Amino acid sequence: MDDVKGWIIPSAASDAKTPAGSIITINRLPCHMQCRENMEIIPGVHQVDGVNANCYIIVGDGLVLVDTGLPGNTGKILEYVQKTLGAIPSDIETIILTHYHLDHTGNAYELWDITGAKVAIHADDAGYVEGTKPMPVPGGFIGILYGMFKFFFKFKPVQPDILLHDNDQVAGLTCIHTPGHTPGSICLHDPKFRMLFAGDTLRVSNGKLEGPHPRFTPSMDQAKQSIKKIAALDFDILLSGHGEPLMSGSSEKVREFVPSMP
Ligand SMILES: [Zn+2]
Ligand SMILES: [Zn+2]
Q: pTM for the full model?
């Protein structure tokens, strides 16, 4: 990784902590890894590849980000915005976080600071991203690994602008509160495009649905109830926090998945 100076803070971000006109330093990957392929899932919905977890961009009047990946990927996301979408960082108007975990919120502070976008998260997860609640650590060996992971990937707290609740509208999407994986986990439903952003409440692996990872899910019972709640919705496309998009018949697949949940 080498540091490259380059992003000029747009005037739209003048209410952010870095003054307009400033030039900041961000981490960028070696050149051969910088060229982002166009990852358009359906017209107007993109995925920024390789930021772990998935980061989605919805293109409308402005840009909406759903999740931000692990720390260190701000440059990759902004490069996609500029080179692939032909937009500028301040076109990002809203950053929606599906839950507080580091692999989804890792670049939220930097993106907020650079773009001036509004950051939205469910009220029950807000304390973890603003740094007023300690992020819970799983027990056992996984907890030790998680501690090392947290040390390596430093999390910068961010103050949310929008606190979401069940059924709220945010950037044209409906917030579905789906607790279990975290207290404030959400899915985002777009009835117009028949699409659901699932965060970690549902994962996709080799075209198959899975529930959230039990080790990182304090209440699997609650998570199962949340998946049943999703099963009552109607959508074709499922975009999970991990794994590839499911492109058709997705709500039917969730309904088929429910009875197989352990
Ligand atoms: Zn998670
Ligand atoms: Zn995740």
A: 0.84
The pLDDT value recorded for residue 137 is 76
**Furthest CA-CA distance within the chain:** 55
Name residue 175's beta-bridge partners: 188
Residue 207: is it exposed, middle or buried by C-beta count within 10 angstroms (0-12/13-18/19+)? exposed
Residue 142, pLDDT score: 67
Distance 2 CA to ligand 1 centre (A): 29
The vertex-37 CA angle with 245 and 213, nearest 5°, equals: 35
| Amino acid, res. 248 | S
- Ligand number nearest CA of 67 is 2
Cα separation of 124 and 139, whole Å? 22
Could you please state the CATH topology (level 3) that the domain comprising 2-27+36-260 is classified under.
Metallo-beta-lactamase; Chain A (3.60.15)
Distance between CA atoms of 247 and 174, rounded to whole angstroms?
19
Which residues lie at CB < 5 A from ion ligand 1?
A: 101, 200
Q: How far apart are the C-alpha atoms of 119 and 159, rounded to whole Å?
A: 8
All residue ranges of the chain with pLDDT < 70 are 1-36, 142, 149, 152
Ligand 2 mean position, distance from CA 14 (Å):
31
Distance 207 CA to ligand 1 centre (A): 19
Distance 223 CA to ligand 1 centre (A): 12
The Cα–Cα gap between 252 and 243 comes to 18
Q: Residue 128's closest CA among 45, 185, 195? A: 185
Sketch the domain layout of the chain as residue ranges: 2-27+36-260
